[in-house]
C-alpha cells in the first residue's frame, strides 16, 4: 500500500479500475498530487473504498467506461456506505499507457534495462496505475473544456 505522509485538505478524486479478480485504486488531488495507489482483490474493493473515504476528502469516483463499468457502477451505488458521484471516462489504451507509466515511476534495474522498451513487462499488476491514468484523463478533459 502506498500512502502519502499527509492527508490533503482539498477534495481529492478516487480512481477505480475494476476487474473480475482485482481492481486498481488511486487517490489524487486536483493538483495531480498522488496520495495513494494499490491493487486490491475485487472482493475487497468496496470495503477498501469505504476506508479510503474515511481517510481522504474524496469528492468523486472516476472509472473506465468499458467492459465491467455498468455492473460495477450499480454495485458501488448499492453497496457504498455513502453515495458518491461516479464519472465514467474513456479507458481505451489505458493498459498500454499504464505499462509505460510503470517504467517511468519505477525505472528498470539490472538486466531489464537491456530489454527493448516494448518487451518490458511490469513485474506486478498495474491496475492501480490505470486508475491514476483515469483520474488524469478526467482532469485533462476538465482543463480542455476550461481552456478550449
Automatic annotation (TrEMBL):
- SUPFAM superfamilies reported in the protein's UniProt record: Ribonuclease H-like
Keywords on record: Cytoplasm, Hydrolase, Nuclease, Ribosome biogenesis
Query: InterPro entries given for it?
Result: RNaseH-like_sf, YqgF, YqgF/RNaseH-like_dom, YqgF/RNaseH-like_dom_sf
Keyword Transferase (UniProt) = no
Matches recorded under Pfam families: RuvX
**Coiled-coil intervals, chain numbering:** none
In this chain the YqgF/RNase H-like domain maps to: 11-98
What is the name of this protein? Pre-16S rRNA-processing nuclease YqgF
- From which organism does this entry originate? Nostoc parmelioides FACHB-3921
Amino acid at each position: 500500500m502506498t500512502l502519502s505522509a499527509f492527508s490533503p485538505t482539498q477534495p481529492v478524486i478516487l480512481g477505480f479500475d475494476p476487474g473480475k479478480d482485482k481492481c486498481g485504486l488511486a487517490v489524487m488531488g486536483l493538483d495531480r498530487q498522488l496520495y495513494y495507489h494499490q491493487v486490491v482483490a475485487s472482493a475487497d474493493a468496496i470495503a477498501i473504498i469505504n476506508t479510503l473515504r474515511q481517510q481522504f476528502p474524496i469528492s468523486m469516483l472516476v472509472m473506465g467506461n468499458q467492459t465491467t463499468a455498468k455492473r460495477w457502477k450499480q454495485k458501488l451505488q448499492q453497496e457504498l456506505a455513502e453515495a458518491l458521484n461516479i464519472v465514467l471516462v474513456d479507458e481505451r489504451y489505458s493498459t498500454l499507457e499504464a505499462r509505460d507509466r510503470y517504467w517511468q515511476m519505477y525505472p528498470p534495474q539490472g538486466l531489464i534495462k537491456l530489454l527493448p522498451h516494448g518487451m518490458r513487462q511490469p513485474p506486478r499488476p498495474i491496475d492501480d496505475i490505470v486508475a491514476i491514468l483515469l483520474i488524469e484523463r478526467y482532469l485533462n478533459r476538465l482543463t480542455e473544456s476550461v481552456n478550449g
